[in-house]
Amino acid sequence: MSAPAPSPSFDSRALRQVLGAFVTGVTVITTVDKDGRPHGLTANSFSSVSLDPPLILWSQSLTSPSHPVFREAERFVVNILADDQVEISNRFGSGGADKFNGCPTRPGLGGVPLIQGCAAYLECRRINSFPGGDHLVFLGQVDRIERTGLQPLVFGGGKYLVAQPHDLGLLAAPGGANIARLKAVRLATRALVSLSDELDETLALGVWGNKGPTIVRWEESSEPVSDNLRTGLVLPVLTSATGLAFAAWLPRETTAPFIEAELAQGMDLVQVEQQLAQARASGIVRLVGTDKFADLYGTSISAASVPVFDHSGAMVLALTALGHTQRMDLSEGSLLVTGLRHCAAAVSQRLGGRSPAATASNDPLTAA
Fold first, then answer.
1. Is the dihedral of CA 71, 77, 78, 84 positive or negative?
2. Which CATH superfamily is domain 168-358 in?
3. CATH assignment of 16-159?
4. What is the pTM for the complete model shown?
5. What DSSP line would sit under 70-92, residue for residue?
6. Which of 83, 76, 75 is nearest to 41 (CA)?
7. What region holds the IclR-ED domain (predicted)?
């Protein structure tokens, strides 16, 4: 007699969190009962099994209200939801009595409804089912398929996501600087969204534009410093964290006209030189409790900015965090500073970039 299997050292909640790391599409499985009434539920347990013959599987909880119907149904449809069908997913994932009320459908094989507007459909015939713990696993043979061309809805980590192309490995050296910057912005935007969600901080993505430091993307926190977070905002070079980052690491010939114009307004040259030297040495710009943007944000703010470098060693982006001074910890080793550093390093690595120490601009400023 075999020994009983050891009890797992984790609970169902921990297991669910681990499984959430596996990102899936979202489907609604539909069928009809013996009286022709439609039934459906949201499922991300769908998976392919075989191409020849074409087989798929999905599983359903034994306690699901519609389980007796699916257990006896001869046919079902896997409706692969499109990225604008979050409401459909939530509707069929709930315990509502009439999930099909107001949901456009069309009849498929055996009268099983196909939900309109999906990314794809697989019309299946149930050929077997197998017990799987607290679920029943259905094996289906695919009789008819359809791909609409719409982008699929994605789910992972307990939230809905959208599918985007992935730049495999290091980005190849592009043919022009503009294309390189577009690729860098696309890559950094994804990282910015993830970091903002993780830290609950307002983050900005800055580029060097025709008029100087320019914000091309915002990700707001649950407590943004202002509602006035404008894409396309042009910032001063020497009084903003984003601007100081570009001043510290861009070639002096690029920034000189802007820096000289701001120095001419009476700024302290020695103080600015010290700020830039400190930024280059530490790899980060910090501004604590500045009121230079009170007219824009309505309050004093704190901010931090780190550079992103491309394959040529040039700074192409600034990742910046800003917010109310009392809620921002800009000390070394804080979650925010560590998160910014790691994010910038990861994006730079994907771009083939070199370290900040190898690309710092140490040319002296001039007081024009």
1. negative
2. GAF domain (3.30.450.40)
3. 2.30.110.10
4. 0.62
5. HHH-SEEEEEE-BTT-HHHHHHH
6. 76
7. 170-353
